[in-house]
Protein 1
Amino acid sequence: MRANPKDVFTGAYYIDGDVSSAYGAAAAGCKFIGGYPITPSTEAFEAFVRRAHQVGAISIQMEDELGSIASVIGASWAGKKAMTITSGPGFSLMMENIGLGAMLETPFVVLNIQRGGPSTGLPTLTGQADMMQSRWGSHGDYEIITIAPDSPQEMFDYTVKAFNLSEKYRCPVMIMSDECVGHMTEKVVIPSADKIEVEPRRFYKGDKDKYIPFPVDNLVPPMVKAGDGYKLHLTGLAHDEKGYPLLTQNSKVKTQNANTRRLVDKIRLNVDKIIELKEDGIDDAEIIVVSYGITSRVAIRGIEMARAKGIKVGSLRLVTVWPFPEKKITELANKVKAFVVPEINYGQIVFEVERCAYGKANIVLVPHGGGSVHNPDDIFHAIEYAAKERKNVDGIIEQKTNLYSLIFEKEYKLHG
Amino acid sequence: MAKKKKEIHPMESLLRMDRIPHIWCPGCGIGTAVTAFTSALEKLKADLNKVCVISGIGCTGRVAGYVKLDSFHTTHGRPIAFATGIKLGDPELKVVVFSGDGDIIAIGGNHFMHAARRNIDMTVICVNNFIYAMTGGQVAPTTPLTAYTTTSPYGNVEVPSNIPQLAEACGAVYVARWTALHIRRLTNAIVEAMQKPGFSVVEVISSCPQYYSRINKLGDGLDMMKFYHDNSVIRHNEPTENLDIDYQKQIIVGKFIDRERPTYMDSYKKWLEEVKHQIPKSPKIQNT
Amino acid sequence: MKAGTHRLSGNEACAEGAIAAGCRFLGVYPIVPALEVVERFLKRCPEIGATFVQMEDEISVLAAVLGASWTGKKAMTVTSGPGFSLMMEHLGLGVMLETPCVIVDVQRGGPSEGMPNSPSQGDMMQARWGSHGDYEIVALCPNSPQEMFDFTIKAFNLSEKYRIPVVVMADEAVGHMTDNVVIPNKIELVSRKYYKGKKDKYLPFLREPALTGIPSMVDIGNGYKFHVTGLTHDERGYPIMNAECQEFCVRPLMEKIRKNVDEIVEFEEKDTNNAEIVVLSYGITSRVAEKAMDLATKDGIKVGFLRPIVVWPFPEKKVRELSKKIKAFVVPEINYGQIVYEVERCAGGNCNIIFVPSKSGAVHEPEEIVNAIKMGIKEEKREEVIQVKISNQQ
């Protein structure tokens, strides 16, 4: 299906990533935003609020992030495409209800403009330290999809894609952007509505009495919405195909097995359709730089510097970070000498790369605590090191950055 | 011999009969509150397809699982927030939050305050049994002073919440309190509350024979009904500051607040009409 | 409690352990299946002069516990999955302020409300990754009431020593299991390092040595007039918003655990020397695994047993070392795959990884693990986790 022309603000703009994402949400048909102000994501919320009346959407600022995510799940069951916008601390507060969203198989999108953490951390500066949290942050077993855009243009494109994926697989989709992308102002081209593919909500149309919300043989069944007379019941408890909790131990075990299994299976069995990667020069590469989000743009400079020295470097950019491209990494590990993983954290996705490399290639981590992006020199040095190292080293090799030396090896004064 | 006719429960059309028997203990007042609610629905002749029940977690949280309406059993403390989303997502729906005192006043207290302040058009039926019953009898924000619970083994020292006063202060337009004994009055209150546009609150004082009464040695469900009979005083329009409930003292019931305030959606529409001219037209297509 | 043998449930033993460790503040919000800890603690409250508060939700619970810890009390909370999810924001605060405290998570079936009365191991990754931002955590996995007692004490010791929230990842089965618990005469306790210098010279985050040191604490109300913040801060505790300060502030949170990993990590191993297959399990699952190991040994298979007691930080070195000697790791878990990914990572392709998921809501049958062990002998080397199909899986 194509986007509704009323929802699309076609044109070329000079806007930041936050605003671009809000326009993307509108174009995807988002009709509800429940938000709570938090730096550095507030611009996206504001931008959507300003546009909401033009596209006939509702926006509400709830009393906290727990409220905003709960209202989003509610709105989604009222038939609206819905979204919430937040950053680290708010994301932590949403963890409980992200589990609820996964359990009820509710489509919705969470935009997380990451900032430095943990806790209040660096509200106005960048970070990429919520990546593992987006996958593992709620209790119990579930799978989600995570996308990491790296430019304002992608904030538009991938917000649309996030809505499409969430409608298609009926699961929460996280857009894990960061402060740099969110506050970066660039040219954004919004195409006309007929060029934007939009996945509509699939509604059940059959007999009212025969509606089964979670049929065993269909991992992604059509939905109904509240008010259509289906009298559906949904619960966060382990439930059977009708959506009812079962209380006896035996039957409970069976249903839980079927009904939580489906939460992971609907993603795990479709990974090939979901995963999107961007590759550059990996065919004959000796070293591969694995990066995502803003870091992938900084890495380009490091890669260029290494190529100028004659090192064969390829770049693998994770557009979808979760589900993780296990097969691709395993396949590449057999061909290359090392993976270099720059991240604005002290090691998160690098553990996944290490896991999937099966000891076939060295793993070099270029950590950076946040507050700014990497110095491309650090990435270049890591590539240089990786190209020289001959033997396979157990575990992750951590590249000492300039910042590390500055703080911990020289007598640097933080304050006057 | 005449064939024995299958007995049909009068509320069958409103309950999920495939889920009965329910989990509530004998003598519990929540069932009565549900009956009052379903009777109210019948009285209202409401379009049942458009009524939506949202519950949180706890004994009362299970209500959503037994009423044959669109029903949501959400996370602990968040039914009002969830309901806000539903109401704003589809303003045509009649939204009822049916949950307990711990769920709505303790962990969900913030959402209660703010939904009342915004005057979101919903009805909150708060069953107050003075205790966290589902988890085995812990102290609740409504537990009267000196009452015993498993987490106040030497008597409660925390001053309990006065739900009607809290609701009034936050801006609710309709506030009533009845006990599980006053079933007709309770039914009428729910009818009124659901007809009232805006945030309406009906507090239902309920017996909890398994925990509250057992731990405090107050007898079974029937004894509690007798207690309600002897000790509840109907005083409509009583100032809400007088509505504190002391341990085993009189309980003032009645309709306390019935006032007009524009609902969130009314204000929203009105405001949208007023600022219509300010909303920019869709942007012109620029050359790319 | 008097030294000697007592008959206690896991949850009761946990409360006794906390009391023995000197815990004098318990903040909770009621949740199944962790209640017995609270009830036991409360009964003992007047006798030991402890403070108890039941807050309005789990968010405020952990906030209160952190506050109490800064008054000099050893503080704890108990919860289960949904409550643990709500604590995520303040877990990050606890890490950032380097506040000693203990969180007991009696795991139940998830996600969301899941199955309140059934055991699960579905929060293992959440304990490590559940809060935003970068941090390291210490998590312990008891498998019996005795260990609920011992590990609660151990948790307090680690938390006081490294100034970090420590999580005890129990589960419903261990929590509700009743067994003999031996309370020893002497219990070794570790207390936080207090600052003893001049009042106006106190720096709350001054580390010696710079990267891995643990700063000294003071209690609130002693005239030090110090400031702490969840924002990125320098050694004075004052916020500075730049990348340099972030490196200064956050990297040590990682390094104080990573560099001390050998001291913190603890595991139990059996027959791993000549083993072809090693069963790696933790918590309640390890008890089933032991039974399975006996069964497989009877069949003539050389099986070893590795049980991480401290699950986070993960015993990387040990797993790496074993992976080079054996054919396969068999990893049973009551979830759809969490710690198995860590095993896969550390095994580095040296051996096969066989994952035994469980019918959620129930512990494994020993036969399921035995079958996986047999599979490990036969299976050729593969570059993916090999999943065992469970009989009633749909």
Protein 2
Amino acid sequence: MPLPLLLPALLAVAFLVLPLLGLVVRAPWSTIGPQLAQPEVGQALRLSLLSATLATGVSLVLGVPLAWVLARSRIRGRSVLRALVTVPLVLPPVVGGVALFLVIGRTGILGRPLYEHLGVTVPFTTTAVVIAETFVAMPFLVISVEGALRAADARFEDAAATLGADRWTTFRRVTLPLVAPGIAAGAVLCWARALGEFGATITFAGNFPGTTQTMPLAVYLALQRDPEAAIVLSLVLLAVSLATLLLLRDRWLGRGPGQGVPA
Amino acid sequence: MRRTRALLVLPVVATVGLTACGGSASDTAAGTASSSAGGDLSGTLTVFAAASLTGVFGNLGDQLMAAHPGLGVRFNFAGSSALATQLTQGAPADVFASANEEQMTVVTDAGLQAGDPAVFTGNVLEIAVPEGNPGGVTGLADFGDADLTLAVCAADVPCGAAAAAVFADAGITAQPDTEEEDVKAALTKVQLGEVDAALVYATDVRAAGSDVEGVPFPEAEQEVNDYPICVLEAAPNAEAAQAFVDLVESDAGRLALADAGFRAP
Amino acid sequence: MTLDAHVVVQRGSLGVDVEFWVGDGEVLAVLGPNGAGKSTVLRVLAGLLPPDAGRVAVGQDVWDSADRHVPPHQRSLGMVFQDHLLFPHLSITENVAFGLRSRGMRRAPARAAAAPWLDRVGLTGLGDRRPGELSGGQAQRAALARALVGDPRVLLLDEPLSALDARTRLAVRAELHRHLRDYAGSAVLVTHDPIDAMALADRVVVVEDGRVVQAGTPAEVARRPRTDYVARLVGLVLLPGTGTGAQVALDGGGVVAVAEAAAGPVFVAVRPESVALYLQRPAGSPRNVWPLRLVAATPHGSVVRCDLAGEVPLTADVTATSFAELGLAPGAEVWASVKASEIAVYTR
């Protein structure tokens, strides 16, 4: 391996891994058992996994078609659209949370009629957690899938069309399987981002154990009181996400090309 | 003052931003502007102060700099517990002003203080409601109403600890919908009209402006939250630090604090 | 059920405007250099590219006209692409059955219908393989089966052999010939290889710069090319000129004597093997003799192809032995002569 590549690569690994190592080293291993046994921990972890998975599901259902529109359609203003939908990537998540209030909050553009006519309020519910996480995480999926769609050979879609497949059939039976690895990668990225989401969630969904307190919120609040407890919670989040990602990698991403999802 | 006003406009953003960055301080003066005129104090003074002090301390800092043209004052306003964590992790600072005794204890337990902390002011809780009080909140008892959308601070942060104490005193089982990470976040939800009421500090209600109304309640007086201040042992600019603490404890300082809704110690 | 096409379409700087028809059971080769617009024409026929003007019709069905564009999936056609484009995530059987499936047939009957096609293209037993597990020739055969399986009215072949190595190409070409002979619909073969056109097509249209420059049977086109490109493809030197009885005054200068009388604008076609080279001006009085300079010599089987420059630019094929005896090297001055009776002349 050439040194000009190896050296920065090693530095990058050190830069990314050492802080995690710091967490492991400084963790209060002697008290970790009782810390983990607290019901709030399991509650927050369950809520985190549930909401991140739901957010990923919503992102898949809405984001993959959006990526297709961005990559394949010839609509006007596509570049403006792309810029707009990736705004949540650069927007501070807290601002995203405030923005969500302005739309689906109790006094928001859509939220007010919802509240006044149906008595439904979205903020401070688990639904709000999923919405906040989806808002922040979906762009990661859209960008990944759009990239995969652009890299995929569009002539396969031509071939499908000459074989009598309309655009929807082509999308389902050709495009989707071809970009399946890209979708999986995007979903994993999206899930990871949703799992770590803090700013938009605490702003829009608030913080209440059992309904809206996800792991990152629990970590942040534990940090206010007891940094050691925060470290323990972080390690739990870390372990669970690492385990999940490794498992998924073996299941999906590790497979070679041409071995995607069977039709 | 430019910076502090910005902090008031978007309190949540600023607070969390500062916390997340671990001490990106607000820069009210260049700090390097050397001057031959007047002042005996020079260099940079770094003050770590509870977020609720943003307005008052910003003004006092400006006064100090006006008196000592060679001095620059930098503030790091954040939640007291976040500040205490930063200090115990070695953040360089001259002065620490906490919104409660507990977080000051974290700092003194680490032996970081130069002298005994002194309580310089106090704060009491007040109910903040959106303009027009849509939920018809009249007193602390309304926090037991599950039909209202209510915000309190999380028990881990000072305003939450104070709230818990007040509820315990009054024998009320609170039914909050959210336990906010700090008082500014709770206030923001009132400003946005997303909650019917939030339990915050009287000073926060005062600083929030016209879209928030305050509902004082008698039980609050039993839980006055004391604000201690101290110069830090490792202060790079101990002289200026003491001058700032003196200014805070002076009549001018007390007046400014009272204007902002703080109690006398 | 004839394919009748007039395709007008602008692609970047290239304006395409070609017109042709293909009868039932007929194979039309669209022959032309790269970038001539051949594949564009094919994409229009497939419906993948709406034309700017013109008309595409099959029998009574109009596929493209001023007010009509039938999308590709509603056209009864099959298409074979240069690099097969078999779907990598599907087995060979699923690939071949794809057209039936997308036209509404259920999975099991579609697979059953695909099986005999695998047999017909010689892929018996390979149905469960993935495209990546086939050789290039096998993949192209599978692609042919996939295109033919629904008995489409039109079969489009886009450079179907050019991605294959020489030996495989020979085998697949022979097989393709067999299938095209049995095919009842209209077939359009796009190629830049004259051998494909000659071997597979009933008729040829030559397209250059978006225009049809010549049309006819492969034999006609080979014998009487009308452009340099075709002439070079079929191994002839083509010289435009004006006939004045027994002579043709070439447009590029020089005079060629011909055996048959010619008048007006004509082409003079010279076969390289009919050109003889000498170091001295040949004795006797051959009428067609020119001093030329050798610019390039490339071995071509048992002959050496000599490119000659001068008043009448020619190409000569001389045997390797003669080439050695003449002791020629690029830059050498030579005399070239051609018998008048060896020269073809036909009107432009």
